[in-house]
């Protein structure tokens, strides 16, 4: 069948790749450069599996700037455009999703809209009422930056926000493109599916925050963080995963999803959800204070990206620390090879590593790699396990 996909970020490009193995997929984007790259089978994002599939698999995939070309005759239209939480206005900006919905409605076509973008709880129902439509549902994604296609090929679960034949068909399309054979599929109402997405990501943020606060305690009391984490995580109920201390949680999902979930708790008693949101700022404050204690004149930032093998630094935690250091009057120099500019956020960018080394006194490193081992004497990191 023909499937239209709006948005070619991690979610949109990975699902386009997955589904185009067995279906005609037309991906829509507003950036001509990305459209041209996809049509030349060059991945516009860093993702090992997408790059491999673009090179070695026969994919019935093309990209376009024209929404009518993408959506006409499509049995399913998947929306994977970016959404974000606006801290100033205290609301979740879903305008890009709603814009696609309006475009689909204007075409008066027989199709099913599947929202993959993160949205507030109740969004699908509100769209149904606002536009008097019923051909729309939510299906959350659970993907990692840089491993998005892998997580579609080997999904932890598939959740579709409707108990219907069209929901079953969509789930089977995802299963058909996957390599993993035994995949748990859950059908539920879209409102519950929306909640699953926000609660899952907030739990992950909670886990990051928990081990970061454990690390803060150990650091300030002169204890060995790694020994404590190793001992704690031998409990099988806790498990030895997702426990490596960092400068805070960041990226596409966790910061905005935790804030959105907190907003959904407007009239619901809670303590924990608000604490998870606040803990990220507390962690950044602590890291900043530890650097200030060293009294450096020039602090180096080794990579704006916070994860190994990622080229994305949207909402990375290190940016909050950069702002705090600048407020304290500390000069900040950034080493980020993926950044082709001389300045970022008012800071000098120096992508000659030797020059970067020469001009910095302390270097903040969220995740250690072979490069920074050469300057270990000036590195400040909380990375204990050399993994994400």
Provide the helix percentage. Answer: 40-55%
CATH fold assignment of the largest domain: Rossmann fold
Elements, N to C (H/E): EHEHHEHEEEHEHEHEHEHHHHEHEEEHEE
Oligomer: single chain
**Computed Rg:** 22 Å
Number of contiguous helices? 14
CATH superfamily of the largest domain: NAD(P)-binding Rossmann-like Domain
Helix- and strand-based class?
Answer: alpha/beta
Largest sheet: 6 strands, parallel
CATH class descriptor of the largest domain? Alpha Beta
The strand count comes to: 16
- Give the strand order of the largest sheet, numbering strands 1, 2, ... along the chain: 3-2-1-4-7-8
Backbone shape: globular
Through-space gap between termini: 38 Å
Integer tally of domains? 2
Low-confidence stretches: none
Determine the strand fraction and express it as a percent band.
5-15%
- Name the average pLDDT: 94
The CATH architecture classification of the largest domain is 3-Layer(aba) Sandwich
Description of the structure:
- The two termini are 38 Å apart.
- This protein has two domains: 2-188, NAD(P)-binding Rossmann-like Domain (Rossmann fold), CATH 3.40.50.720; 197-380, NAD(P)-binding Rossmann-like Domain (Rossmann fold), CATH 3.40.50.
- It has helices at 10-19, 32-39, 48-56, 67-71, 95-107, 123-131, 148-153, 165-177, 190-220, 225-233, 254-264, 272-292, 317-327, 353-359; strands at residues 2-6, 24-28, 61-64, 76-79, 84-86, 91-93, 112-115, 136-138, 158-160, 185-187, 298-302, 331-335, 343-344, 347-349, 362-365, 379-380.
- 42% of the residues lie in helices and 15% in strands.
- It is globular and about 65 Å long.
- The strands form four sheets. Strands 3-2-1-4-7-8 form a six-stranded parallel sheet, sandwiched between helices.
- It has 388 residues and is α/β, with parallel strands linked by helices.
- The model has no long low-confidence stretch (mean pLDDT 94).
- Helix 9 runs parallel beside helix 12 and helix 11 (254-264) runs antiparallel to helix 12 (272-292).
């Amino acid at each position: 069948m023909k499937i239209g996909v709006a948005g070619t970020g991690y979610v949109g490009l990975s699902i386009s790749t997955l589904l185009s193995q067995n279906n005609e997929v037309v991906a829509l984007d507003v950036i001509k450069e990305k459209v041209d790259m996809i049509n030349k089978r060059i991945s516009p994002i860093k993702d090992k599996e997408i790059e491999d599939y673009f090179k070695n698999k026969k994919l019935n995939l093309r990209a376009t700037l024209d929404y009518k070309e993408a959506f006409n005759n499509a049995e399913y239209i998947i929306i994977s455009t970016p959404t974000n939480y606006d801290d100033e206005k205290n609301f979740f900006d879903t305008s890009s999703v709603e814009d696609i919905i309006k475009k689909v409605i204007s075409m008066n076509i027989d199709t099913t809209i599947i929202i993959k973008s993160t949205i507030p709880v109740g969004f699908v129902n509100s769209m149904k009422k606002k536009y008097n439509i019923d051909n729309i549902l939510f299906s959350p994604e659970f993907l990692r930056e840089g491993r998005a296609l892998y997580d579609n090929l080997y999904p932890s679960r598939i959740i579709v926000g409707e108990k219907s034949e069209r929901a079953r068909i969509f789930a089977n399309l995802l299963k058909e493109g996957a390599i993993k054979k035994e995949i748990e599929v859950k059908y539920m109402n879209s409102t519950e599916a929306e909640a699953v997405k926000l609660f899952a990501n907030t739990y992950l943020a909670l886990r990051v925050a928990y081990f970061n606060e454990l690390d803060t305690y150990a650091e300030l009391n002169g204890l060995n963080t790694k020994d404590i984490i190793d001992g704690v995580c031998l409990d099988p109920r806790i498990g030895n995963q997702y426990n490596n201390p960092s400068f805070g949680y960041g990226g596409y999902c966790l910061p905005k999803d935790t804030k959105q979930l907190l907003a959904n708790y407007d009239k619901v008693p809670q303590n924990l959800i608000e604490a998870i949101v606040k803990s990220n700022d507390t962690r950044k404050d602590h890291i900043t204070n530890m650097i200030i204690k060293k009294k450096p004149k020039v602090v180096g930032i080794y990579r704006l990206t916070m994860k190994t093998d990622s080229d994305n630094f949207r909402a990375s935690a290190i940016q909050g620390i950069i702002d705090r250091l600048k407020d304290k009057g500390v000069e900040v120099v950034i080493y980020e090879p993926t950044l082709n500019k001389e300045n970022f956020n008012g800071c000098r960018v120096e992508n000659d590593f030797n020059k970067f080394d020469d001009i910095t006194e302390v270097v903040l490193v969220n995740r250690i790699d072979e490069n920074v081992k050469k300057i270990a004497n000036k590195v400040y990191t909380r990375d204990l396990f050399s993994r994400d």
